[in-house]
Amino acid sequence: MAFPKAQRWLLAALLLSGGASALSGSIDPYFLDVVMGVGVGIVLASSLNLINGFTGQFSLGHAGFMAVGAYTSAMLSTVVAPRTGLGPVALQWVFFPASLVAGGAVAALAGLAVGAPSLRLKGDYLAIVTLGFGEIIRVVLQNVDAVGGARGLTGVPAHTNLLWTFGTASLTVYTVWALLESTRGRGFLAVADDEVAAEAMGLDTTRYKITAFGIGSFFAGVAGGLYAHLKGYLNPGGFSFDKSIEIVVMVILGGMGRHAGVVFAAILLTLLPEGLRELGSRSIPNPFGGPAWSLDWIKDARMILYSLLLILLMLLRPEGLFHRRPSRRPSS
Amino acid sequence: MTEFLQQLLNGVLLGAIYALIALGYTMVYGVLRFINFAHSDVFMLGAFVAWVSVEKLGLPTRSLLGGLGALLAAMSVCAALGVVIERLAYRPLRRRSTLTVLITAIGVSLLIQNVAQSPRLGFGPNPRAFPELFPSSQLHVGGLTVSTHQLGVLAVALVLLAVLYWIVHRTRIGTAMRALSFNATAASLVGIDNDRVISFTFGLGSALAGAGGVLYAMNYPSIDPLMGTLPGLKAFVAAVLGGIGNLPGAALGGLVIGLVETFVSGTRLSTFRDAIAFGILIAILLFCPAGLLGKPKVEKV
Amino acid sequence: MSASAPLLQLTDVTIRFGGLTAVSSVTADVREGELAGLIGPNGAGKTTLFNLITGVYQPTEGRIDFASAGTAGRRPFHLTGLGIARTFQNIRLFPSLSVAENVRVAFHRHLRHGVWHSLLRGRAFLTEEAELAERALELLGIFNLERLRDAPARSLSYGDQRRLEIVRALATQPRLLLLDEPAAGMNPSEKDELMRLIRFVRDRFGLAVLLVEHDMKVVMGICERIHVLEYGRKIAEGSPAEVRADPRVIAAYLGD
Predict the structure, then answer these.
(1) Looking at CA atoms only, how far is residue B111 from chain A in angstroms?
(2) Sorting pLDDT into bands at 50, 70 and 90, what band is A1?
(3) What is the ipTM metric for this complex?
(4) Total domains in the fold of chain B
(5) A262/A322 Cα distance (integer angstroms)
(6) Hey, is the C-beta of A197 within 8 angstroms of any chain B C-beta?
(7) Burial class (CB in 10 A: 0-12, 13-18, 19+), C4
(8) Which domain holds residue B61?
(9) C226, C240 in Cβ contact below 8 A?
(10) What's the mean pLDDT in A65-89?
(11) Which chain C positions have a beta carbon within 8 Å of A201's beta carbon?
């Protein structure tokens, strides 16, 4: 047994990303942009899945961690990188990944800062506190002029490519999967199911929750860094509660605690707004003759559709679209 | 000194508004153990209903009757909306996990906000000027400047609080509400129709939120579909501060938050004003989750 | 470790919740390898005592010593690592996990691999995982549950769920096993089987068992020593025969 199956999948995914990346010069840039956005979405959704879906800690502040990572790595690229005197190749292939990891690390620290005190809180309260932290991060970023304040941060070099996005996405999914697929990893689920029983069976529930927050926020931070170097600019408003909700919807739609489901949901929900935007710029020919019917109301409707989707999901199918795992009842 | 008293007055007024909204949060939490995320949007709709009744339906501005009419319209529409939301979105999920209902509440909140923001279906995202509802003038009392609007806010808030007190303590349905908040099973066993009481609670809480919206708009006369988020959040903090589920606590909490916010706005930290509300919330939940007047819960193992 | 010091020692243990004193000045002990019972009318404080022993609650007064070391301020998971395991009055299995997984999580305190090992998945990790899977099956086999190993824990019959809880507690390698009403909801033949299994488990693993039970036949049948609680106080202690004849115990159960 030279190389266990899981690692083989990971390696294949990485090679595929690398290959696609090398060919990316011949792909339409808009399409490329969207696809890389999907990769970032997968990282965000999988990392939140660890916290929300598997460990049952309902976090509504994931966008905050993304913001921390985004700003950290963007600041490194715009402020530190020019002073190092490194050439473009080194910047893209050495400095950039290092800045992503740095962004992730700072985000992980933020995750620990949020997770640690929130640990005693249950359900609604934990959700509110994480929401609060997410908003505090946004407000702080909006008011600190050194990182651009409300005007945002611009001039971030476009280092993100297919290899980095899908490589990271593969790594994230692998990490969450590998973490969970072990005796120790099953403990996350036990903690989500029943903390009292989990403690009684010798599980340090605090440690589990902190680990989930730490790892989850690390990857959110890396996703932020990827995002920053994809868009080229950052605006604190883009990391608001709305963004956190988008990621939460991905996790719920995918079925909290389903690896593949969450990936599909991330792909679907990242492509959906793009699809809607495309659709909205078209028009349907009018069957009664006369001017074609414009579909541009669809653009406005995106968030309305989102919220309806959320409500309907909860009413009709809270286990998500790809469910196998039963919907969990909380310990009363 | 007069500066201080002026700020005190402003703080009390703001606090009264927060108290009205906080009461809605706390009442719903009391009977359902759930945080109604959509409450802040009902607050916003209250302001808009009043706006519509003046701008579109022709109620007179600057008149006592017109103002009261707009207020009543806002309260009735919001009450009805609250009942409808509960019936359609929350009641079917009564037996599911609290997280499912919470997410649904978030969905409802987002839905209301985005419909209101939509140019076609709602009011569009831009802020609008809120008309003067009541006849306004300035009074000068001992160096302080008080507008009749502010007095109006205070008067309405006090009347509503008194009415609420009367309902909760002197009517059968109020007693039923209190019973439900202590023990839902026992309440149904003694013949209380839980569903009806819950609907009533939602209606009542939403009416107060609607009133809060009108009063808020009277003092800060620019309304937009997202205006509910921050006041709603602060009112929520107020409810938690007072001890969630505790009615006098919500009123007290509202007052405290209103005063803190007013005094902070006068300092250099004012841009962080909103983050401070979050900070207080986090501090309460971490150090004193039962709030000022609440009772700590012990989980039975 | 001296043979004379008991495995578990409660000294004057009291706990108050606001105005309510749930347990009052209870002094009791459980010896190594002993099969002990804890009985008393409803509301006597038996489960509260379990919660105190396992660290879920901290005593307001008094002390608890396990293996001659104080347990004050220790979190439950730590005490489990020291050798105290329990089942719950209202079954608390992990519904998301399968039968085998419920048992495997309980191996937690004795795991050799850490987080990094799960990620790297080297040979040592895979070997340990295989070992653990086998051990779980073994334990399940004792209680005849191994055929259900992949079934979701929720799908088991009530009696099987109770027994699974015991298996899960055993997986933590305890020196003291606290069973909270293990016979609840069982029919007579299941109870007989349970009694046999408890004795077997005690003999095979050399652990002490403290049992809360309402079924007197079970208690009198297997317990070597019985402690009796009423309204949070200990009112009697002794062998089954002594306790059965004790007038205070009779009065407690029959009322005044």
Answers:
(1) 5
(2) very low
(3) 0.90
(4) 1
(5) 8
(6) no
(7) exposed
(8) 19-123+146-223
(9) yes
(10) 88
(11) 77, 80, 85, 105-106, 108, 168-169, 171-172
Q: Provide DSSP, B164-210.
A: HHHHHHHSHHHHHHHHHHH-HHHHHHTT--HHHHHHHHHHHHHHHHH
Is the CB of residue A133 less than 8 Å from the CB of residue A64? yes
Alpha-carbon dihedral angle through residues B271, B273, B279, B284, given to the nearest 10 degrees: 170
Residue B244 lies in a domain: no
Q: Are B86 and B105 in contact (CB under 8 A)?
A: no
> What per-residue confidence (pLDDT) applies to A326?
46
Cross-chain residue pair A310–B104, CB shorter than 8 Å: yes
pLDDT in tens, B209-259: 999 999 999 888 899 998 998 898 889 889 988 888 888 899 999 999 999
Q: What angle do CA A15, A19, A21 make, to 5 degrees?
A: 115
Residue B41 included in any domain: yes
| Cβ atoms of B259 and B271 closer than 8 Å | no
- Render pLDDT for B119-154 as a digit per residue (tens, 0 to 9): 888 888 888 888 887 777 787 777 777 887 788 888
Instruction: Report d(CA B22, CA B233) in Å as an integer.
Output: 9
- Quickly tell me which residue has 């569009």 as its tokens: B124
Encoding tokens for residue A205?
């529930």
**What phi and psi, each to the nearest 5 degrees, are found at residue A63?**
-60, -30
Cα-Cα-Cα-Cα dihedral sign, residues B201, B204, B208, B209? positive
Q: How far is CA B156 from CA B133, B149, B213, B221, in A?
A: 13, 10, 12, 17
Q: What share of chain C is helix, strand, coil (3-state, %, to 5)?
A: 45, 25, 35
Amino acid, single-letter form, for residue B214: V
Nearest to B37 by CA among B19, B21, B20, B25: B25
Residue for token pair 């060919």: A23
Pairing mode of beta strands C208-212, C176-180: parallel
Asked, for residue B165, whether it belongs to a domain, the answer is yes
Cβ distance A203 to C111 less than 8 Å, yes or no, reads: no
C121 touches chain A (CB under 8 A): yes
Dihedral (CA of A70, A75, A77, A80) sign: negative
User: pLDDT for B79-134, tens place per residue?
Assistant: 999 999 999 999 988 877 777 888 889 899 989 998 998 888 888 888 888 888 77
Alpha-carbon torsion angle B78, B255, B296, B197, nearest 10: -20
Smallest Cβ–Cβ distance between A311 and the set B108, B120, B299 belongs to B108
> For residue B134, is it within any domain?
no
- The encoded tokens of residue C20 equal 């309510």
DSSP state of A160: -
Sign of CA dihedral B156, B157, B163, B167: positive
CA–CA distance, A154 with A78 (Å, rounded to integer):
9
Answer yes or no: is pLDDT of B20 > 90: yes
Could you tell me if A33 lies within 8 Å of chain C, comparing CB atoms? no
How large is the C-alpha radius of gyration of chain C? 19
**What is the secondary structure of A41-109 as a DSSP string?**
HHHHHHHHIIIIIIT----S-HHHHHHHHHHHHHHIIIIIHHHHT--HHHIIIIIHHHHHHHHHHHHHH
Our CA-based measurement puts residue C256 at a distance from the nearest CA of chain A, in whole angstroms, of 36
Q: Are B21 and B209 in contact (CB under 8 A)?
A: yes
